[in-house]
Amino acid sequence: MSQRVILVTGGNGGLGDAIARCFVQESPDNSVWLGLRKNRSQADRLAAEFPNRCQCVDLDVTQPSAWRAALQAVLRDEKRLDVLVNNAGSHEDHLLASMPQKAWQQVLATNLDAVFHGCQTVLPTMISQRHGRIVNIASLSALLAPAGQTNYAAAKAGVVALTQSLAKEVARIGITVNAICPGYVETEALATLSDEERKAAAGRIPMRRFGRPEEIAAAVRFLACAEASYITGSILKVDGGIF
């Protein structure tokens, strides 16, 4: 299939931007939709850079009704949806003993509940097409949970388990479901680290550097391509070799 329709959530962040660009550059026939709800300056710039090939759609990933409205907008224009990339997420780190209940609930809502809502919303369309690709962005924290991230690590571990279970449910229908666990990536999430913290973090990576958003995006594009049709339920670490 030369033309594909892709929906990427968290479209205004550095990783969302890189994923969208990767799909836009993959084929001049691809149509990329960026789902977001707050600041959309970066997403608007990308849409302006690729008019008629990249556009924004309002999407609060924690609300099922917002997912339904966003999908309706995509289908109204495109008549199909081939790829969903669940990239939206957030974190609010605390030690568990002092973690506010709101921090627990909000992080699970944006990182785990959102993936459930998104997959459940797009599945009827993909099932009717008998084709689809779902790529969920989890985190290395799901596999190597650090102290101070019980909420985030639990949510991302839930994404991993959801991915593997759903992959089994839809494997016979031509739909693949995979997850990527990025390590340290040069995005806004690392902007708050001090120089000493950055040096210490890089020292824990065998490659001795942080990943680039484009490197994560390339993995997403591969898992969504036709050549990866026999890969489903996989959890791909993209982390510079951390074990």
C-alpha termini separation: 37 Å
Give me the Rg, rounded.
Answer: 17 Å
Inertia-based shape: globular
- What is the count of helical runs? 7
Largest sheet: 7 strands, parallel
Helix content: 40-55%
Low-confidence stretches: none
Q: Strands of the largest sheet, in order across it?
A: 3-2-1-4-5-6-7
User: What is the averaged pLDDT score?
Assistant: 94
**Percent of residues in beta strands?**
15-25%
Number of strands: 7
Note the run of SSEs as H and E: EHEHEHEHEHEHHE
Structural class: alpha/beta
General description of the model:
With about 240 residues, the chain is an alpha/beta fold. Helix content is about 45%, strand content about 15%. It has 7 helices and 7 strands, in the order βαβαβαβαβαβααβ. The chain has helices at about 15-25, 40-50, 65-80, 100-130, 150-170, 195-205, 215-225, and strands at about 5-10, 30-35, 55-60, 85, 130-135, 175-180, 235-240. A 7-stranded parallel β-sheet has the order 3-2-1-4-5-6-7, with helices on both faces. Helix 4 (about 100-130) runs parallel beside helix 5. The longest helix has 29 residues, at about 100-130.
